[in-house]
Amino acid sequence: MVEKNTERLNAIFHALSDPTRRAMLDGLARGPRNVGDLAAPFDMSLAAASKHIKVLERAGLVSRSVQGRTHICSLDAMPMHAGVEWLRHYEKYWNQRLDALQAILEAEDAAGHPSGGQGS
Length: 120
Hints:
The chain is mainly alpha-helical. 60% of the residues lie in helices and 12% in strands. The chain has 5 helices and 3 strands; from the N terminus they run ααβααββα. The longest helix has 32 residues, at 80-111.
């Protein structure tokens, strides 16, 4: 069934809506990184990078541990499953609609009726 926790889905999709945060997740998919490593590919301060990381943390996509003065971030991709399931529900919806449209168009073609082209 589709995820009913609206706040959780909103946080996940909000986190994924930003290209910088998606790029940070790509980096974390290769292994844990510190905040400086996550910020390095972008023209941003550590404070700005930390704000992006906090959005990812609120969505449950990133966990942060502190080792001395270094903050290490790790990916937790499991919450993305809720977003995938939500999208999958609508994929089924649209596939059913498109299959129905295809059946109508094929029936019209078989009956020799134009399907909205010229001369209709």
